[in-house]
Amino acid sequence: MTIRLMRSGVIDAPAETVWHLLRDFNSHDAWHPAIDTSHIEADEAGDQVGAVRAFTLKDGGFLREQLIALSDRDMSLSYCLLDSPIPLHGYVARVHLRPVTDGNRCFLIWESSFAPPPERAAELTRLVAENIYEAGIAVLQARFSLSVVSDLRNTPSSGSVERRSPLQADTSLPRPSIVSSGASLSAAAIMVEQYGGPEVLQSVSVVVPPPAPGEVRLRQTAIGVNFIDIYCRRGDFNLLQLPGIPGMEATGVVLDVGEGVTNIGVGDRVAYAGSPIGAYASIRNVPADLVVHLPPDIDDRTVAACYLKGVTVDFLLQDMHPLKGGETILLRAAAGGLGLILSQAAKIAGATIIGVVSSDAKAIAARQAGCDHVVVQDRHDQGALLRQVLAFTGGKGVDVVFDGGGGATFAESLDCLALRGHLISLGQASGPIGPRDIDQLVVKSVTLSRPNFAHYNQDWQTRQTRAGRLFSLLRQGRVTSRLAEAFPLQAAAEAHRGLENRGNIGAYLLLP
Amino acid sequence: MAKVYISSVISASAGQVWGVVRDFNGLPKWTPFVAESRIEQSQPADKIGCVRNFTLKDGGRIRERLLALSDYDFTMVYSILESPMGVENYVATLKLIPITDGDQCFAEWGAEFDCAASREQELIGHIGRNVFLAAFQSLKGRFGS
Question: Could you give all domains of chain B from N- to C-terminal order, each with its CATH number?
Answer without folding.
Answer: 2-142 (3.30.530.20)
